[in-house]
Amino acid sequence: MILNIFTDIHELLLGLMPENIVHITELVLIAVAYLGIFAILGLFLVWLERRIAAFFQFRLGPNRVGPMGLFQTVADALKLVSKELTGTEKADKFLYKIAPYFVITTALMSLSLIPFSYEIHAFDINIGLFFLTSVSSVGVLGIFLAGWASNNKYSLIGGMRTGIQMISYELSVGMAIVTMVVLAGTLQISEIVEIQKDGWLIYQGHIPAIIAFMIFMIAGTAESNRTPFDLVEAESELGAGFHTEYSGMNFAYYFLAEFVNLFLISSVAVILFFGGWLSPFGITDAIPFAGLFWFIIKVLGVIFIFMWFRWTFPRFRIDQLLTLEWKFLLPINMVNIVLMALMVWLGLTL
Amino acid sequence: MERIIFYIISLLIIVFAVMAVSNRNLMRSIIYLLFVLIGIAGIYFIIEFYFLGAVQLTVYAGGIIILYVNSIMLVEKINTPLDLAKFWKRLLAGAIAFVGTFLTLIAIWSYNFKTVGVEKDTSIREIGNALLGYGDKGYILPFEVISILLLAAMVGAIVIAKTKKIQNIKNKTNIL
């Protein structure tokens, strides 16, 4: 059966080399697999965004390269790889070159915590969600540094805006997560999913959970720098924002990381509110690896909502953005946490 | 294998720490400092204190460093490398550092360390119970004191932000 595929690989490797080296080899194999997932996810989501954009605007979108234009983004990536890497003359070269890797590394580290199904889960520690937020809080630095090291006024303004935006909205994302953790009673991602066998958390926690979900979606949009909160790269004001001076593969890193972050936000939403890999009403619990299917379907659903936002709402101004966070979302969130704690305490959860 | 990883991380921490203090470009110093802090988080992860490691990442790498980056961008001469100190000052600093290292090394080598495995349960549940426990091995008092300190800091920040606004309005009314 497919279920045994991982143990088969493990035993095959054990036959080939001593135990110590098998451990290291497996680590490397998992890392390579996740790099593959990272690249495929990025490319696929870029294609999806373009198709959905076209759908909303009554266009066709990319449809020439491969079936339904699926290989368009692969072709784009090949073009980007072959391009010359340009840089600015008076920029701080070291920081300029190192900046994209902050974004890439943190996105990749966060990806390792995402459970694709019961069987496919690379790193399951008991502080899972906290680790996820703490790792992604380092990613902001990549954007800060890119803005600073490019030696370009548009980049600098873009970078500073992102810094402010991401630091503020991290608070809302974190507090929405805390609200759900109060209900779930654990930070370990696999346990959070297991708890939802009797009903997804958005059902178990009803009113506060729905409020938390809405806050999470708003703050998640801001956290991944998407419209209506894409002030970072407001084209009409700042050119391309913090990555104006980046070209070729360095630009592609930012581009890919942005879409992988979108996937991360969506999968955290799925884990916290919609039962992770669990099938609705447990209809396919007996089939191994069916969780993968459900997880992907749910995540794509949430991603579709995010993309829907993009073509529905106009862009905010920076002061409106900060007012929304500090004067509305944060107080609502604090009240919501107390409400959720009261509900759990009084046993009013479903 | 853990031993090898530990040595690699320690070496990186030392190298980056030296680079952080010896580099004359402020922005780069901060980035080297960031690497040092991430390395320390890595050591926490090796000894399986995941919570402490994650806190290290959030508070230092994600919080303090970003604060530093923000405040350093306000410094005037950020693009020019820092001036070197006078020769005798450098000599004095070097001598003090040397004596300090020497004393620390003596202290470390003369102490008889015991190897201890991970015995403590460091799951988040245990930490939560310990932080809010008021019996034996409970830390409720420090926890509450820190909460009040944080609250005072937040109220102070709001007050400072408010007074400026009030003064501005007063000035404007005076002009009018």
Structure classification of chain B: mainly alpha
Helix-strand makeup class of chain A: mainly alpha
**Helix content range of chain A:** 55-70%
Number of domains of chain B: 3
Elements of chain B, N to C (H/E): HHHHHH
Number of DSSP strand runs of chain B: 0
**Could you report the average pLDDT of chain A, rounded to the nearest whole number?**
85
**Beta-strand proportion of chain B:** under 5%
Radius of gyration of chain B: 23 Å
General shape of chain A:
globular
Structural overview:
The complex is a heterodimer of chains A (350) and B (176). Helices cover 69% and strands 0% of the residues of chain A. Chain A contains 14 helices and no strands. Chain B has helices spanning 2-22, 26-46, 50-72, 87-110, 124-132, 140-175. Chain B is mainly α and 176 residues long. The interface between A and B is medium-sized, with 28 and 24 residues.
Keywords:
heterodimer, A: about 350 residues, mainly alpha, 2 domains, 14 helices, about 0% strand, globular, B: about 180 residues, Four Helix Bundle (Hemerythrin (Met), subunit A), 3 domains, 6 helices, about 75% helix, flat
Short description:
The complex is a heterodimer of chains A (350) and B (176). With 350 residues, chain A is an all-alpha fold. In chain A, 69% of the residues lie in helices and 0% in strands.
Helix-strand layout with pairing:
The complex is a heterodimer of chains A (350) and B (176).
Chain A: H1 5-16, H2 19-56, H3 72-82, H4 93-111, H5 128-138, H6 140-149, H7 153-184, H8 189-195, H9 201-204, H10 206-223, H11 235-238, H12 248-273, H13 290-310, H14 318-346
Chain B: H1 2-22, H2 26-46, H3 50-72, H4 87-110, H5 124-132, H6 140-175
Helix pairs in contact in B: 1-2, 2-3
